[in-house]
## 1
Amino acid sequence: MSTLDRDVALEHLAHTQTAAEHARDASTGLLELVRTQEQAPSVERILFTLAGAGKTYHEDGPRVEEPTRSVGIINLSSIPVYFGLDGGSPNQAAGAFPIGPGATIVLPITAVQIELGVDPNQLAGAPNQQALVFLIRFPSVQRLAAGPAQGGGAGAAVSSSAYNDVSGPIGIASAQVLPANAQRLGSSWENDSANLIYLGLGQAAVIGKGIRLAAAGGSWDGRLGGATWRGTVNAIAAAAGSNLLAGEGM
């Protein structure tokens, strides 16, 4: 083989290897896209309050290595909620993006850290001095969407049918917190006490079994294997006088 023929063969081989690498990278990227699209979004219930250990600012964390590809916010309150990204102050003075009362929005933006906030003066005039918001993190890119939250509308208080709040005291005997509901879109559960709380799904709650909500903030997003649980939910506490924050969206 002449030197020219050898050089041509080596150049052809290099091109072939490069094409193979590009094809492998494309295949890996496609598989990653399929994987993220199959993942269910995470849903977090955020309650802004003035009473007790309330808060008017929420920072969703800790910062994660895998950024959110799209963000959804459901404002089930009668006041605006302000939205900031990666250190942006979530308030009107900072020019943060507002989500109106009774509004839902999905933003196809990449985010690692998400901040939500409300105006304390507006919160003081809200029903029960509370503002309920759901934050949704999507692992894949979603289409831009905006509209009224179910049962509510922009500029108006949200109908009580949009969210059924069943928060209340939990005792040392199993008791039903939510009945089965085929129309349930999601639910949220948070232990607002210094005692352990256990949930029983479709059966009586038993200490040491089922879903464990750790003291002072232990939570469950209402899903099993990525699917919303629509059956009955019972609860029991390790000590009397425990408090559970819970509810379902319909």
## 2
Amino acid sequence: MNKLLKPAIFFILALSLAVTACSKNLLKHEKNKKDISLAKIAVKKELVIGLAADHPPFTFSDEETLTLKGYDIDMMRAVCTKLGLQANFQIIPWKKKDEILNKGEVDCIVGGFSYSDARAKKFSLSKIYLKTATVLVVRESSNYKELDALKHKKIGLEKGSSLMGNITKIAKQYNGFSDIVFFDGNAKALQALENEKVDAVVNDLLFTHYSLHTANKPYRIIPKPIAAYSFVICFRKGDIKLKEKIEEALFFLTEDDTIPNISRKWFGTDLSMVGK
């Protein structure tokens, strides 16, 4: 995977220089005298982690063993081991993730949860742990080479995805991108692309490269990215003590090279943003 992902890696490292330092804003403490989030976890000795099952290379099910694996799975397992907790991964409907988190059915959400100012107002978000980019994916056999050629075409997108915000931005710039077709998950969106039900799919760069080079899918990425963005761990609003404890664990796991090694395993190089 290392050689195959090199073009994407250089692209992401370059993009990260242009991304605003929103991680600093995430450090602002939300005062909550009744925050018992960490105490609750300490009592049950378990962290319930919500995630999507079809978002490789971050969180996905192995087709042969049916076990969960991915960058975020390895990262959160390491965090739980560091904190002496049992990692309880729960596959959740992504479009209902906000409701499930706020009801207390999970303690946090990982697996491609991107930062946005709107989400920062609704939830307690961790410091950034990965950066990537939003791209348009087309069929390998298509003639589309630039964003402008797709502005009046059918565009597929996962329901509830924060990437919709990026499409809204380029819609104004290109005076198009209004024909959006929504799907229950990335896998169904990409299948629709293969079946020529849509002309392109909005997706994550690392996710797309993983699909291209591990499943030999007939896709191609439009070279110009739509936007750069960052991944965070999402907690209920006010669960600051739990958030800070997990951030602390991530920092120590970065210092002992655990997190960098997990990144090298999945991406071929250290893309982790923890402590940076």
